[in-house]
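Fold description:
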Amino acid sequence: MSVADKSQKKSGGLGETVSVIVQALLLALVIRTLLFQPFSIPSGSMRPTLLEGDYLFVTKWAYGYSRHSLPFSPDLFEGRIWASPPERGDVAVFKYPPDPSLDYIKRVIGMPGDRIQMRGGQLFINGEAVAREKTGQIDNPDITEVDRPVDVWRETLPNGVSYDTLDITPNGIDDDTREFVVPDGHYFMMGDNRDNSADSRRFGFVPDDNLVGRANIIFFSISGGASPLEVWKWPTNIRVSRLFNMIQ
């Protein structure tokens, strides 16, 4: 084989490698934009449903696509394509209204036209108390973030969706609110950790365009502030019982 042949073969091999890498990146971009996007949970606002150190997949097509479905939210179009409204009780990722560069995750509580209010720690929708029952206590700081037992209340929305909420601070500052009337094209979001959640009780309503997708499944979970890349911590820090849990 001549020197020229060797050089041509080497050049061709490099070109094929670059082509494969480009195709893989484009495929990853399409999957992330249109199908699934991974997210990590950085705070305790959705405890006990979601914990810090949970890694989950969000389905991007669940609510259709807005500019926020694309990386960096380019201002290419308005509204949503193939729009489908969320259901009450969905755990949804959305862009934080005061700063759309930030992703938030909360539960959809109020639909357009609803009247939402907290009275004495109980949720009211359109003047009716949402059914709830005390199911016991959790005495596990990895779940509650506090070194004492915390009351757990099982809340059931009018459409039958049920989930656990934490009552860390009885008579907390967000246990009694004014009545919020959800405008058209907006939603009222709340965290399941009711006394430790910056949600629509504080920052207001979430526009439909800000929805990113619905949280579906926890694919990895690690405690103690460890990184998934710290493989040597897996034996003691992985929350095995949370792996591949569907999000309710």
In short: The chain is about 20% helix and 30% strand. The helical segments are 3-35, 141-144, 200-203, 234-237. Residues 6-10 have pLDDT under 50 and may be disordered. Residues 38-246 form a domain with the Umud Fragment, subunit A fold (CATH 2.10.109.10).
